[in-house]
Amino acid sequence: MPAPLRVAVLISGRGSNLQALIAAQHEGALPIEIVLVASNRATAEGLRHAEAAGIATLALDPAGMPDRARYDAELFRRIADHAPDLIVLAGFMRVLDAAVLAPWAGRIINIHPSLLPKYPGLQTHRRALEAGDALHGASVHFVTAELDGGPVLACSELAVLPGDDAEQLAARLLPREHALLCRCVHWIAEGRAQLRGNIVHFDGTPLSEALRV
Ligand code: GAR
């Protein structure tokens, strides 16, 4: 059996997507080993989940750093010490410097709560409601220097219901995010999903649109 994919997960808060990955790994449903959970916030709840699961953690506070580039360089230097094959941004709420991303091209993914390219950035649920969208969702994409702008591997759609508010929409979307992220990490671990150049390939074939989970 091939060695499990070594995964580093970056979080800023609750860490429910991280928990979904940990649970899937423990159930034997995901051929990964989470080698590090890192956060920009020492109080991130997700760090406690990681500690409880016996996973190495790192809390690196940007407040102690002169600027964003220096912070990102230090963060990624310390991530690299754990030799991950893949970095997963799971609710990591910071924009990353292009210089640290370049060596990780094709080996870093992000989950975002919208049907990209719609609504990069914040307040995605509120923006979908304000636009009167009938469909909302989440996407997993390969990370580039463009905020929430890298090539999308897969998305999960969710119908907007009459009377939905942003909190209800977010709560209904969350379990879909968990399934979507686990599925995408699984595809990468199996070597089925890859970024070649700027194009996502699945089973060796270039994708013309995001897969639907
Ligand atoms: C998730 O909804 C994730 O999609 C979103 O933050 C939340 C983290 O929840 N990420 C972004 O908005 C990134 N642009 P979690 O900490 O419970 O996994």
CATH class: Alpha Beta
SS content category:
alpha/beta
**Spatial strand order of the main sheet:** 3-2-1-4-5-6-7-11
The number of helical runs is 6
Got a strand count? 11
What ions, cofactors and ligands are bound?
Answer: glycinamide ribonucleotide
Shape: globular
Distance between the termini: 26 Å
Low-confidence stretches at least 5 residues in length (pLDDT < 50)? none
Q: Name the helix and strand elements from N-terminus to C-terminus, one letter apiece.
A: EHEHEHEHEHEEHEEEE
Average residue-wise pLDDT: 97
Overall tally of domains: 1
Strand content: 25-35%
Q: Per CATH, what is the topology?
A: Rossmann fold
Largest sheet: 8 strands, mixed
Percent helix: 25-40%
Question: Radius of gyration in whole Å, from Cα?
Answer: 17 Å
CATH architecture: 3-Layer(aba) Sandwich
CATH homology-level superfamily: Formyl transferase, N-terminal domain
Structural descriptors:
single chain, alpha/beta, Rossmann fold, binds glycinamide ribonucleotide, 6 helices, eight-stranded mixed β-sheet, three-stranded antiparallel β-sheet, 213 residues
What does this structure look like?
The longest helix has 24 residues, at 166-189. The protein has six helices and eleven strands. Helix content is 31%, strand content 26%. The protein is globular and about 45 Å long. Helix 1 (16-26) runs parallel beside helix 6.
How is the topology of this model organized?
Elements: E1 5-11, H1 16-26, E2 32-39, H2 45-52, E3 57-59, H3 68-80, E4 86-89, H4 98-101, E5 108-112, H5 124-130, E6 135-142, E7 152-159, H6 166-189, E8 193-196, E9 199-202, E10 205-206, E11 211-212
Parallel strand pairs: 1-2, 1-4, 2-3, 4-5, 7-11
Antiparallel strand pairs: 5-6, 6-7, 8-9, 9-10
The structure holds glycinamide ribonucleotide.
